[in-house]
Specification:
This protein is α+β, with helices and mostly antiparallel strands and 352 residues long. It has 13 helices and 15 strands. The strands form four sheets. Strands 11-10-9-12-13 form a five-stranded antiparallel β-sheet.
Amino acid sequence: MIAIHHKPGSFSTRWIEYCNKHCVQYKQVNCHSSSIIEDLRDCDGLLWHWEYNDYRARLFARQLTYSLEAGGKRVFPNSRTCWHYDDKIGQKYFLESIGAPLVPSYVFYEQKTAMEWAKETDYPKVFKLRSGAGSTNVLLVRTRAEAARLIKKAFKTGFGPVNRFAVLRDVIQQFRRCRNAHTTVELAKALIRCLVPGVPEKHMGREKDYAYFQDFLPDNAYDTRLVVIGARCFGIRRQCRKGDFRASGSGLLSYGRELFHHDAIRKAFEVAESMGSQSVAFDFLIDRAHEPKIGEISYCFTLDPYEKCPGYWDRDLNWHDGFIRPTDFIIEDFLASISAHGVVVSKEPGLI
């Protein structure tokens, strides 16, 4: 028996479809319940796709994961997969410690130290917040004065978890590229959010008392997002916004197999193995020496773009044709890990 925390629009919808199709016994649980440990007594593992903007999950998801693992349960994402999720500072320390090719990164916890660094470093630099997605809190810092302004704000009032005006700019660009019912609704939502913050934003607090920068790698008109799940790697190319250095969240995607450099794919497999991760998405840029560098990582991702990938590479860099379902890869590996643990997965009809 496996447990699935179901949230519409998350990976769980696909997992439930998989269980019903392949006659895997499962039950739905509520990870926010005080009785969740007892609710999982008859289960061999838990699948829970929690996201960075789930302010409640941020309070306890990692602690629940570790506790279930201590009790012998299999969990997706497990501790090694999710501990660094939505924490770019944690990612910096970890990737540096395992010798991964991280874009040179700098973090400061004192305003004085940050200001001294800002006076001596070269520019431009990229300023990021520890958390957040879609490049909404990623800024290009061109001068010492701009860096000083951001550092002062970081150690005084801090930054909101969502840059609502940056989100609005991105939505406007997407609306101009493709005017339909979906982009119209998203534009309306973004306009409202500029006036009224969403529920997650109200609860997530401000980012402050640290300053985080990365080197700017010029001449990157796109980034490469590679996802490694087990022995499979697939990816998308994300074009930068017009007149902008950011690619994440642009919605300008390409899929051709020939677009992806084998050095980056090989490095993605190597780093994923060092991490012991069940699922990891890498944002790769190319430095001046033409070497792939990692900007940041995540265990999860928006499904729609990746289900259009025309295939995947295995660890030997052999290509496998055919459109993919990343969530199927996740649950297949998850069930295999349970079987490897000495538990026979039931083949009774799936239950909701």
